[in-house]
Please model this.
Amino acid sequence: MGENNVIGENNMIGGNTVNSLQPVQTTINGHATAAEPGLRPRRMRISPALRQMVRETTLSPADFIYPLFVRYGEGERRPIASMPGQFQLSVDELAREADSVLELGIPAVLLFGIPPEKDWCGSDNFNPHGIVPEAIRALKEAAPELIVISDMCFCEYTDHGHCGIVNSPTVDSYNASLPEGYLLNDPTLELLGRASVVHAEAGADIIAPSAMLDGMVAAIRGALDGAGLAHVPILSYAAKYASSFYGPFREAAESPPSFGDRSQYQMDPANRREALKEVALDAAEGADMIMVKPALPYLDVLAAVREAFNLPTAAYQVSGEYAMLHAAAANGWLDLEKCALESLTSIKRAGADMILTYFAKDAARWLAGKQ
Ligand SMILES: [Zn+2]
Model:
């Protein structure tokens, strides 16, 4: 041990406990010599094999859930310009997709629907022959073991692009004390329950409500239980933020709001404690799994939720997170594979048990070393 170690004398080095995390340096006559021999973390980084042995977080295709956009029509495979490599698929194209997802070891998909027609109440969402119920049936027939998660919201189905019934003198549930255009909470809950039953009866394995309405989990749980579907779990988008990172998704799902935004129901990006409150409410209402969305800009929220609740926790790496990595890679500024895998690793490290990601198939291939 050097003469003037910067660690205090009470910290025993070289065989005994070191309590301090201060930098360790030995000095002789005021000149630095070498790191303290007992404290060389680089020893464990000397080879790929050693690094792998002590790695704390490992990604696997089994961590991923792959979001899919299903649209009306036949033989459709429409590229989504702002999300390279992602498509809107018609129902008949889904079977092919199901096979490739399963072959890569990805256990689950999440479905978003683009119906042929939109209306004031999003009726396609609770039509047993609507776009998503048809897609669920096609997927379960093609690949019964693939877990099909149904995103449960109304924004893809309403002509105004909001997540349920909006206040207007033209609707039965008009409330004159609320502003016109306000998303009506309780009348929408009833529709969410109804649509959830339709999707579950079509074969959805999990219902994933994403509207951020008060009481949505309880309403859906009640509706499912009442229809003899008590075995169908709920994955709640419990802490979903009013994020600008959803930009490309709006093109993909053809669901931009025709007026205003969603900040009256989705969370303020500035709030972390409120996320814990939202998750606590959803857990109390019977959510089986919970989600934080988006992922990368909200890793602190994800870590806090993981720490506070003993529920399987998902994080959604959203369209903007995907698009910006692609855009930077297309410019030659970032290595897509390395940055995408690093991003996914950070999401898992922060506490995600499941990651919803548009990179699911690519990442599975990268992890398998196929590309
Ligand atoms: Zn919505």
